[in-house]
Each structure stands twice: as C-alpha cells, then as structure tokens.
Design goal:
Strand content: 5-15%
Structural class: alpha+beta
Bound molecules: zinc ion
Number of strands: 4
Radius of gyration: 22 Å
Shape: flat
Order of helices and strands: HHEEEEH
Strand order of the largest sheet: 1-4
Distance between the termini: 62 Å
Number of helices: 3
Helix content: 40-55%
C-alpha cells in the first residue's frame, strides 16, 4: 500500500475533531475581524491612489475611493449579525 493511502485510511482525526477545528478557526477569524476590521485595498495595495498614465497627476482608487482600506468580509458578517440581534431585541 502506498504511504499516502496508508495515512489516509488509518486512525486520523475523526469528524468531531475537524468540526472543532473549523469552529475554532471561524471564531478566531471573527475575533480578528472585530479587532482589525479593515484590510489594505487589494487594487491599490493600501495607497489609495494611482499615478495617472501621463505621470503628472494622481487618481483616486475606484474600489476604495482613495481611503486605501476596505472592510473585511468577516466584519460585514459580524455587523449584520449584531444589527439583526439589536433589531430583534428592540422590536419585542
Ligand atoms: Zn484602493
């Protein structure tokens, strides 16, 4: 038996271990998004502007509108969850 098949069919981590790791990774990412909600813009690499093709003027980045930072996806999810919870709590 090839070593790769032997390793995959043997006593590896079970489903509960994988689910626990996935839950810990998700919670860690959400905590990361609460502490650091912004990431550098992927288009302008956090600069927020580009040098025009003529080389004589600066143009603001269209994606981040010149801020150089974008809200992380996890932070958007966190804000949506928080607002939904606050909305439900206020409408009791
Ligand atoms: Zn940008």
């Amino acid at each position: 038996m090839p070593p790769l098949l032997a390793a995959s069919s043997g006593a590896g981590p079970d489903l509960g271990t994988w689910l626990l790791l996935a839950a810990l990774t998700t919670v860690g990412y959400l905590i990361h998004c609460v502490i650091w909600p912004y990431r550098a813009c992927r288009k302008c690499h956090g600069v927020g502007k580009f040098l025009a093709p003529s080389g004589r003027a600066w143009r603001y980045c269209n994606r981040c509108t010149g801020r150089g930072a974008q809200l992380r996806t996890g932070r958007r999810i966190w804000t949506r969850i928080k607002n939904t919870h606050a909305h439900n709590r206020n409408n009791r």
